[in-house]
């Protein structure tokens, strides 16, 4: 594996340089990030003879281990009260309860304490890039209560507490024969403390009187991953049969009409069979 071009100029012979390519580390919000130092202690030098510290992309000291003991003199104030620990076996810094503002580059430095003082022995290059992500909640479709007309309904889809900000959010209308995408303006708000995003979209749908079954789904896409809401199903209105009282009334009326018709037919036939007395006379 190739090493960095500047490697031989930066490191002493005490340590073996580790490959240059450093992948970004993704850590979930409020969990633990593991920041490697990326070097091999080939001669098993004791921590009592070393000074190990990490810097962020602003050159602020995040953590310092001075001859095997934690030292806070050079640590930036915003990291002094943070929950940070050092894994001696893996030479890894553990940054607990990660926040969105912790994103950025981190670099490990090692100095060896010799007879002539501290000598730079290791500088990790390139730095480790920390990316912090937070999963959005499942999108939820809700019907607005302020619809002014029965011919349409205001639908709102929302999702909260996520990072980074979404790339796209839209509705999908699915029928028996097609699926149509409806994109609307996404409303975004960011918490000033956590820096997490809340997002929502709205849509006035006017097809509730169609006679076919339809389903609406809300889709939220963040960093090449999409979240789907539960289906919002639309069932066409059913034609209700007339009430039982109406059925009885209609049935009774029909029987009366039939009875009257039969009565007159019978009388007409009887009258037709009687002899014509005027002719006989």
TrEMBL record:
Residues 8-125 form the Ig-like domain. Keywords: Adaptive immunity, Cell membrane, Disulfide bond, Glycoprotein, Immunity, Immunoglobulin domain, Membrane, Receptor, Signal, Transmembrane, Transmembrane helix, Ubl conjugation. It is found in: Cell membrane. It holds the Pfam family V-set. SMART domains: IGv (SM00406). The chain crosses the membrane at residues 247-266. Homodimer. Interacts with MARCH8. Interacts (via cytoplasmic domain) with PHB1 and PHB2; the interactions increases after priming with CD40. Interacts with CD28. Receptor involved in the costimulatory signal essential for T-lymphocyte proliferation and interleukin-2 production, by binding CD28 or CTLA-4. May play a critical role in the early events of T-cell activation and costimulation of naive T-cells, such as deciding between immunity and anergy that is made by T-cells within 24 hours after activation. Also involved in the regulation of B cells function, plays a role in regulating the level of IgG(1) produced. Upon CD40 engagement, activates NF-kappa-B signaling pathway via phospholipase C and protein kinase C activation. PANTHER family: T-LYMPHOCYTE ACTIVATION ANTIGEN (PTHR25466), T-LYMPHOCYTE ACTIVATION ANTIGEN CD86 (PTHR25466:SF2). This is T-lymphocyte activation antigen CD86. It comes from Loxodonta africana.
